Automatic annotation (TrEMBL):
Keyword Lyase found: yes
Alphabetical list of SMART domains matching this protein: CM_2
Keyword match Lyase: yes
Lineage of the species this protein comes from: Bacteria, Pseudomonadati, Bacteroidota, Bacteroidia, Marinilabiliales
Coiled-coil stretches: 10-37
GO MF, one example: chorismate mutase activity
Protein name: chorismate mutase
Keywords from the UniProt entry: Coiled coil, Isomerase, Lyase, Pyruvate
């Protein structure tokens, strides 16, 4: 993939963005695999929600956003959305495990 500044057409830029988006989605799928496995180590909804861990995660992601010159607001929104969905999935998996 070309460097962004080396692109000479809008199609090249869009193609690169599409490839990056696919890579991001593949990483999200990999992250989700771990979300499915972490439930083995959590015994209740409080452990799933893990408010202290969430706070640490958001603070760390904000530092990473600063290091990578990303919008802290965007990074915060992305991770809060992702974590909220992951918590919902973990709760669902926890309930299923209790039924089984």
């Amino acid at each position: 993939m070309k460097e962004a500044k080396s692109c000479t057409t809008i199609e090249e830029v869009r193609s690169a963005i599409d490839k990056i988006d696919r890579e991001i989605m593949e990483l999200l799928a990999k992250r989700q695999e771990y979300v499915h496995e972490i439930i083995r180590f959590k015994n209740d909804v409080e452990a799933i929600v893990a408010q202290d861990r969430q706070s640490q995660l958001y603070e760390q992601r904000q530092r990473w956003a600063d290091e990578l010159d990303l919008s802290p607001a965007m990074v915060d929104e992305v991770f809060r959305t992702m974590v909220r969905h992951n918590i919902q999935k973990e709760i669902e998996l926890h309930k299923q495990a209790k039924i089984s």
